[in-house]
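Page 47, continued from p. 46.
Same chain as before, 337 aa.
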Amino acid sequence: MIPAICLLSACEGKEPLYQEQGYVFGTLVDVSIYGETEPRSRQAASEVMQEFQRLHNMLHAWQPSELSELNAAFARGESKAISAELVAMLQDAAQLSQQSQGMFNPAIGGLVQLWGFHADEFKPVQPDEKQIRQWVAANPQMSDITIVQGRAQSANKSVQLDLGGYAKGYALDRAAELLRKQGIHSALINIGGNVLSIGRHGKRPWRVGIQHPRKSGALAALDLHDGEAIGTSGDYQRYFMLGNVRYCHLIDPRSGYPMQGVQAVTVLTRGARAGVLSDAASKPLFISGARGWRAAAGQMNLPEAMLVDGQGNIHLTTALQKRLEFTDKYIRPQVEQ
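Result:
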């Protein structure tokens, strides 16, 4: 199963379903195209995979990239010319950060690195508490960044951008744009648990499953309609154990420590920025925890959302409850208006 989300409506016979998989953004990606000839599907999927690789190379946080070069300039207190595409991304990410009251904060890449998550393989590490306090006190924010005539500069040298909570969603939207331009009317794009749907899987909607955060297999399933995206943030993919404590890559910018007490958050989005929202908008809910997630969902305009807390209890909105079918029929989620 692909992490976080799995494609449940696989080939059940001789249906014209083409699937291509790859590994980019540090995760598995899958492009499924229905109802087209194999050469046409292969060409379309190949173009999407090339776009994913281009974005991966552009936005890598700890290998040479346009983003890492910008981070180096920020650390030196210098400005740097950046591409129009990156300008638009940073402006969008800054707006989402403001909307979330800083709970979605791509400027804390220094903290992510301090905890050892800027690596392809990360090892258990306990950062020095003084260093953590210094990063929190420095308070890097997206609002520290100014962009004038294509040159970006930060008033705060501690700003280190990590777009790991934005890039996958942006890539989903780009993939959907490319596929639609090629006349593809039915496809499902999956980037490590962020999934976007185009059209239908033949006569039925695309059906996807939400990965159980502690067991193999799906926690629940739902039909994904045209233009909808679903995204899950969890503590079960990028994490390490130190003693009996799980430390995940989702860091609370207020404390400087990895968020605990939440196993997963899933959000359902739609519209022109469905991909970006499925990725970025789930983070404030996760960081807000079981007590604050519902208010955070309201801030991010997410009527359809679900949180699995540290004990495995499921909390979800009424709107998402209407869409989900739980694998375990005995699950009794806590529905919050």
